[in-house]
Amino acid sequence: MVSKSLARSVVAIALGCVSSTLFTVAHAGLFDDEEARKQIVQLRTQITEQQRVIDQRVAELESQARNRSIIDLFNQVETLRGELARLRGQIELLQNEVENSQKRQRDLYVDLDGRMRKIEAAQAEALRQNTAPVVAPIGPTPPLSTDPSRSAPPAISGQPVAPLQAAQVTDPAQEQRAYDQGLDHFRGGRFGEAVTSFQIFIRNFPRNPLASSAQYWIGNSLYATRDFRGAIAAQRQLIAQYPDSNKAPDALLNIASSQSELGDLQGARASLQEVTTKYPTSEAAAKARQRLGIR
Question: Please, is 34 exposed, middle or buried when counting C-beta atoms within 10 Å of its C-beta (0-12, 13-18, 19+)?
Fold first, then answer.
C-alpha cells in the first residue's frame, strides 16, 4: 500500500511539472509552436520513463514484501518443526521410563515371589517331617508261618485290613522347574508363554503350595497383555480357590487396577476398600490406602 501511494505521488508531481512547463511556454512566447510540441513530446517521454521506473520499483518492493512474508512463514515452520522434535524426544524419554518402570516392577514381583517361595518350601518341608511315617526298627525277619489261618492280615473289629497302597511319588525338583519356567517367561516379557506354563503347572501339580502363586502370575500376565477382563477372572479364581493364600491381597489389588483400566472406577474403589478390610496389615493394603487417599 505504501509503495502504490508513493507511485501515485510521483506521477502527480510529474504531471504538475508538465502543466507548469506548458503554462510557462504558452505565456512566455519565447518558443514557436514547433518548439513547444518538441518539448511536450520530450516531457511525455520523460514522464513515461519515470512511470516505467516507478512501476519497476513498486514491483520490486512488492516482491521484497512477498519474499519477506515467505521468509517469516518459513521461520515459523522451522520453529514448529523444532518444537515437534523436542516433544517427540520427550515422548520417547517417557516411554523409555515407563518401560523401565514396568521391568523393575516385574523384577520386584519375581524377587518377592522367590522369597515367599522359599518360606513356603521351608514350611512344607517342616510339615512333611512332622507327618513322616514311623519306620519299624530293623530286626530279624520272623519265619514264615505255614498255618493257612495266619497267612491273611489281622482283622480289626471283625474287618479285614486292606493291603497298603504305594503313596504317589512326586519330584519336588521337577515341580520347581515347571514353576520357574513360567517365571522365566514372565520375567522376559513373554506373557502368553507364561500363562500357558502356569496353567500346565496348576493342572499337573494342583496340590503344590505354589499353585496359588501360579494362578496369581496368570492374572498378572494377562494384565500385562492388557487383557483386563481375563486378568480379573483369573484373580477372582485365585481368591475363590485359595482364600488364605498370601497372594490374595495382591490379586485384589490387581483386580482394582484392571477395573480402573476398564473405566470401572466405582468397582476399582470397592476392590481397594476390600483389600484394606480383609487384609489390613498386608503390603497390598498399604498401597490400596495410598490409592484411596487414606492414611
Answer: exposed
